């Protein structure tokens, strides 16, 4: 029986039931829903709606439901993990609600479960089955509109904490490689053309820097969503003298939300987290793209471990960087889910509308995918071998054109003039099928009398790096500083 059956004569059609239910998706909120129910019951007792024994009965009932949940790990219990719960694995597979949530034992006829619209209905039904009249009082003064947002925010608090932990793990893996490659010099690319020599450690620390900002975005989102919507009711706030600050504290929130309409209407926390995940995934995707290129025979800069690569069903020689390709592909999916969320709320009239139920499939999926990608990306980085010899061999002598121009600047020439002179030298080199370094000094002197013997120092990549020891530069001191900062951040 649905929670609202009183004013209805007829029953819901099967097709409508399929459209209406969200249980297969929101079952993962169950542990949070139990927590919310427990605190709500205590508050109802405090204001005299529930007697002490009723509150105790509810508490016991909630424990029974928690136990039922615990003994069905394959169906999404905590053992299956927040990420890989049975319900989440079936996301989008059109699972019937009856299979999504039915506890292993207990007085839970299949038919009843199929009538549960969502996880809140399921919990209230089981609670009423377990403790009778006391269970029937639990929904006093609240609505599923504030309940679902409270569940969801509690869930997000856990998930964001886990995600941030994973981000840290990835930064640590990146730092380990950076440590080993402070002296490895590689061509830095812009427009995918060799631009300037850089330290591999510097390149890797650019990834660490981006991930640190991702962590910051998640932390910001977490701080903002740390407000409890419970007590907002359907739209107008609860009609009972609920102490919302007390409820918020009991649930581990920093504070209560300040406006009941905003609390049930907005999905800002979903949008923020989705945006943070999309940006994070975009970072992974760009580095994945570079690493795919680097793993080609032509580049040969990196080799991935077997654990994160696959072979070809047809070509025996192949080792494909599938982890990176899949991560690049999953990024499209995460961004797509973020768009689903924005599209969902855009133009939606205030306050709650049922459209909002569609927030969870999108949000859960993008969180699952981001967590999975982060884990595999970290594994791939940790097990990768970067090839310093190949990187050095790839350094094109024309890479030092900027150094040559700077050489002339040091001797008093305006940069633009120096740029022009070196440009003509590059052209001469190309015409004579050699590179800048092979041009004889006489040729250089023809272009500018300022060139002398010591010009050859311009072609030393280590010297080029050493000139860039300013904050954020690729110089060895700067890179060492970046590493130290990163390590300190990890602690
Ligand atoms: N399952 C619903 C959701 O996720 C819960 C809120 C239902 N509220 C309502 N008025 N029908 O949005």
Notes on the protein architecture:
Helices cover 60% and strands 4% of the residues. By secondary structure, the protein is mainly alpha-helical. The protein folds into two domains: 5-140, Fumarase/aspartase (N-terminal domain) (Fumarase C, Chain B, domain 1, Orthogonal Bundle), CATH 1.10.275; 145-393, Fumarase C, Chain A, domain 2. α3 packs antiparallel against α4 and α15 runs parallel beside α17. Residues 76-111 have low confidence and may be disordered. The structure holds arginine.
Topology readout:
Elements: H1 14-20, H2 23-26, H3 30-46, H4 52-70, H5 81-84, H6 86-89, H7 97-101, H8 110-115, H9 119-131, H10 133-136, H11 144-180, E1 185-190, E2 193-199, H12 200-225, E3 227-228, H13 244-250, E4 255-256, H14 260-265, H15 268-294, E5 302-303, H16 322-345, H17 359-382, E6 385-386, H18 388-393, H19 401-410, H20 415-431, H21 441-447, H22 461-466, H23 476-490
Parallel strand pairs: 3-4
Antiparallel strand pairs: 1-2, 5-6
The structure holds arginine.
Mean pLDDT comes to 91
CATH superfamily of the largest domain: Fumarase/aspartase (Central domain)
Please indicate the percent range of residues in DSSP E strands (runs of 2 or more): under 5%
Enumerate the distinct ligands. Answer: arginine
**Biggest sheet, spatial arrangement of strands:** 1-2
Q: Spans of 5+ residues with little confidence (pLDDT < 50)?
A: 76-111
CATH class of the largest domain: Mainly Alpha
**CATH architectural type of the largest domain:** Up-down Bundle
What distance lies between the first and last C-alpha atoms, to the nearest angstrom? 53 Å
CATH topology of the largest domain: Fumarase C, Chain A, domain 2
Largest sheet: 2 strands, antiparallel
**Shape type:** elongated
Q: Can you tell me the number of structural domains?
A: 2
Number of helices, counting only DSSP H or I runs of 4 residues or more: 23
**Strand elements, count:** 6
CA radius of gyration: 30 Å
What percentage of residues falls in helices of 4 or more residues? 55-70%
Q: What structural category do the secondary elements indicate?
A: mainly alpha
Order of helices and strands: HHHHHHHHHHHEEHEHEHHEHHEHHHHHH
